[in-house]
Amino acid sequence: MSENRGDAEERGDSVDTKFWFRRYFKKGKAGAGSADPGRYRMDYPSIGTCVIINNKNFHESTGQKTREGTNVDAEALERTFRSLGYKIRREDDQTVGEMEELLHSVSQEDHSGSASFVCVLLSHGGEGIFYGTDAPTELKTLTGMFRGDLCKTLVAKPKLFFIQACRGTRFDNGIQTDSSSDESSNRIPVEADFLYAHSTAPGYYACRNRVTGSWFMQALCEMLKEHSNQLELMQIMTRVNRKVARDFETTNKKKQMPSITTTLTKDFYFR
């Protein structure tokens, strides 16, 4: 195993360095349109687009290994977000230039009829970087295209990024335990209304099984399927954190802890 690679493997576990959606609410029901100022509106014609970038094979010059098992993740994510009503756009094995072109194009589309936007990024990585098939790029370059000043039709709407990639070269050894019209101001920060859900904490590897897929994406799909009808997004993500932390472990007792950064300003419900 190479310490400076974005991918390491052990006995099958690896690490990574339409429906037309419309919801009608009864008058006075919480969450109807803008009736609840603490809840994102969902009364749009569509829940939105989900872009999946799935990088499996890498140019030899990158020094990165093939990400076996990532197609399992991509297929599960397609099923999961399609079942929630998202329009899926999946692209495999994208170079840095292709990723940037794709996301810039999507950011310039008209999202005025959409309630939200989702982007899933599957690749090797490091702290603050994400690999195209030919080279690494800054993660912020990709996500920053959807800032409020650059993507006007997603202003004040949730923009959710789910990222399966390593953020360093450390393993977590674990430890035993005992047991819009509602705004008070017309101006909002350009970095508002984002969620960045990383598969692992800063500085650590992220694990992926070559047969069943990555721990984080397995848990995300399972928890969305189980709880998206009832729970708010952060409640769901807390359950994802718990499942990864408690239910997964490598054969040599290594653990993993997802990490979530959010600038969301309201509660988000998929239904």
Structural features:
single chain, 271 residues, 6-stranded mixed beta sheet, 4-stranded antiparallel beta sheet, 15 strands, disordered N terminus, Pept_C14_p10
Radius of gyration: 19 Å
Biggest sheet, spatial arrangement of strands: 4-3-5-9-11-15
What value does the average pLDDT take?
A: 89
Secondary structure category: alpha/beta
Please state the overall shape, judged from the principal axes of the Cα atoms. globular
DSSP summary: helix tally: 5
Described by strand count, sense and barrel closure, the largest sheet is:
6 strands, mixed
- Fraction of residues in helix: 10-25%
Reading the helices and strands in chain order gives EEEHEHEEEEHEEEEEEHHE
Poorly predicted regions are 1-10, 18-33, 179-184
- Measured by DSSP, the beta-strand proportion falls in 15-25%
Organism: Gadus morhua (Atlantic cod)
GO biological process, one term: keratinocyte differentiation
GO cellular component, one term: death-inducing signaling complex
Subcellular location: Cytoplasm
Fold blueprint:
Elements: E1 9-10, E2 13-15, E3 46-54, H1 70-83, E4 87-92, H2 96-107, E5 114-122, E6 125-126, E7 129-131, E8 136-138, H3 139-143, E9 159-164, E10 168-170, E11 194-198, E12 203-204, E13 207-209, E14 213-214, H4 215-227, H5 233-247, E15 259-262
Parallel strand pairs: 3-4, 3-5, 5-9, 9-11, 10-12
Antiparallel strand pairs: 1-2, 2-13, 6-7, 7-8, 11-15, 13-14
Helix pairs in contact: 1-4, 4-5
